[in-house]
Amino acid sequence: MTAPRIDSHMHLFAPSGERYPRGIHALYPRERSALVEDYLQTMDDNEIAHSVIVSLDEHDEYTREVVKAYPDRFSAVAVMNPAHPDPVADLKSRVQAMPIIGYRIWELGDCEVPVRDLRFFPLLEEMSDRGIVAWFYSSPDQMRILPRVLEQLPDLKVVLNHLGFCQTEILMDEWARPRISTEIPPGTLPQVLSMASYPQVAVHFSGHYAFSQDPFPYWDLQGISVDLLSAFGADRLLWASDWPWIAELPGYAALGDIVELHLPSLSEAERGLVLGGNAARILGIEGV
C-alpha cells in the first residue's frame, strides 16, 4: 500500500488587516494572499492527503482558522517571536489558541554561554516536554550550538528546514519567490551532515528553487540531495513544496517529481517515506 502524500512545509495567509494581522515583506506585501480555498484544489489535483501550514511569523490568526475548519487536512507550525519577553509563556499561549505540531526556531541564544544559560533553552525544554518539533531555520553560528542543545535535550525532535541550508537575507526573484544567496555547496553542509548522528533530527527535502543557480530540476543541488540521503537515510527526509512561492514556477507537481529525479536509487517504498510516510511518523500526523 502506497503511503499517503504529505506536504510537510507550506504557507497559507490572508491579506494583512485587522482580522489577520501579519508582517509585511516584499515577498508578502499587505495585499498578497495564499488562501486555503485555492490550495485545496491543488491538494486534490496532486493527491496530497495532508499539509503542514507554517505561519509567516508570530501571527497565527489565519492558520488557526484553517486548521479549525479542516482538521483532517492540515496541521500547524507556529513561529517564535524572538522579541517576546517570556518565550515560554508565548509558546503556551500559542498552544492554547491552536494545536501545533512544530514551532519555527530562528535563534537559540548567545554562542558563548553555557548551553543551559541560552536565552531560549527554557523554550526548547518546554517544547521537548510537550513533544513539539523544533522547526529549525537559523544562522550558521546558531547551527553550531544545536548539537550542544540536543545533548541536553535528547528527546527534542528537530526538523532542519530546506535541505539544512542556513537562514540568510531573504531576497525576492522575478517570480516573487524567496531567493537566498549562498555558495553551493554551502560551507555549513559538513555540519548539517554531522547532525545525522542525532536520531531525533530530520531534514526537509525542499527549497531547492531558492538556492539553485540552475532551472528546474536544479541539477547543481543533486549532489547535496544525495549527501543528505546518504547521511540521514530515506527515513529522515521529509518532502515539502514551500507553497505558494512555487505555484507558478516550477509548479506544484514538478516539486513532487524532484524526489525521483534527484534520488533515483530510492525504492518505491522509500520514495513513499520521503513523500509522506516520514512526516506522518515523525510529526505524529494521524488519520492520513
Automatic annotation (TrEMBL):
Pfam families for this protein: Amidohydro_2
Which GO molecular function, any one, fits this protein according to its record?
A: hydrolase activity
Q: Please report the stretch or stretches of sequence annotated as the Amidohydrolase-related domain.
A: 6-285
Entries under SUPFAM superfamilies matching the protein: Metallo-dependent hydrolases
Put simply, this protein is called Unannotated protein
* Residue runs in coiled coils: none
